[in-house]
């Protein structure tokens, strides 16, 4: 999930709609009318059971992910690894024997991290302390060692209230933690994300030399979390770095004892000229309505600190698996189904924008677009961005998913890469899985293949394929 903040406002809507949905589900189940209202029948229930049986007995998502993460690893846009991932995606889809596989050219940013970042606290009392740090994506480097005092703040408003002399020439240390009281971790991520996204801009406006940002996670550990940050061309570009939560807590305590301490930061990151890359697209033509399209996708790029397993290798292999499950079960879709491996979600959304641009230019008719970018954890259901009537229509299928634990169909943020299709597709749908562990590893060196559970991953692919099957059969 990347580099752009989740729409946490939608979480409030989802909470209310979820309450309504539970009540509605009980009533619909008692009346036995949910499937009749959409034309769904016992045949559909059996078809979905067939999809799940295939996924759980012979699913290929896990092994595809093992290959992607093990042979290629991290796949930052513009890197040689990202190019290898494009070829891997193309070959994997071709081997499945889908009707068509092709690439969509797109120019992407090329930011490189360089040598491992270093940060040390230098105090007047005692010896220095090493901090766990990483550059935020897109940051400028420090041009050698950058040493300055530190001013700690918990919000943009707190920074704005400080006099200039308290900020000028210092690092601004944004130390607002994610709110642990929210059950929905995406909401906490969204609310805390402004400090990562625009902290360096606001710090530079006040004359600071750089921004240090508490990592966006509820975990207390030594893993710094990277992620995209922004610059304003009208404001001096200063380095932006993330501290692990443990290091942020340590720095905060040290500042209480010695407000005059300094931090020495060294980062060699830089932005290089843009690079040509590609979205990877595979499709099965619809048997009755080939001009009506259902897109399902994840983003092929990842950050460079680890293997990009949950973010978003899982979304890519699940999208590929949707096509395989439809083929393997003989459930030929009536509408065209496309699996899209989007490039550059993490630091630019160039792939998502290009896909929507080409779809509009070709006057394509998108029925729905689905995205998986929340990890490969236990399925819970789907978030839907669509008119209220369309949301209700999708919710009528909930009883078919109840026994699989993925019957939560709520209004909410669907995804970054499919977002540009808003206005073209009737519904944008985000695959929703259990989020409690996601931000422990999100954008860190811990996002590795061993953190993915085979059964949870395959269940997610089956959930996605089942909803695609229904939309393909009945439309929206």
TrEMBL record:
Coiled coil: none
InterPro entries given in the database record: CPQ (IPR039866), Peptidase_M28 (IPR007484)
Pfam families referenced in this protein's UniProt entry, alphabetically: Peptidase_M28 (PF04389)
UniProt-annotated location(s): Endoplasmic reticulum; Golgi apparatus; Lysosome; Secreted
One GO BP annotation of this record: proteolysis
SUPFAM superfamilies: Zn-dependent exopeptidases
Gene Ontology CC: one annotated term: extracellular region
Signal peptide stretch: 1-36
MF GO annotations: carboxypeptidase activity; metal ion binding; metallodipeptidase activity
Domain Peptidase M28: 279-460
Gene3D superfamilies, A to Z: 3.50.30.30, Zn peptidases (3.40.630.10)
Keyword entries, A-Z: Carboxypeptidase, Endoplasmic reticulum, Glycoprotein, Golgi apparatus, Hydrolase, Lysosome, Metal-binding, Metalloprotease, Protease, Secreted, Signal, Zinc, Zymogen
Subunit and partners: Homodimer. The monomeric form is inactive while the homodimer is active.
Protein's name in the database: Carboxypeptidase Q
Organism: Hymenobacter mucosus
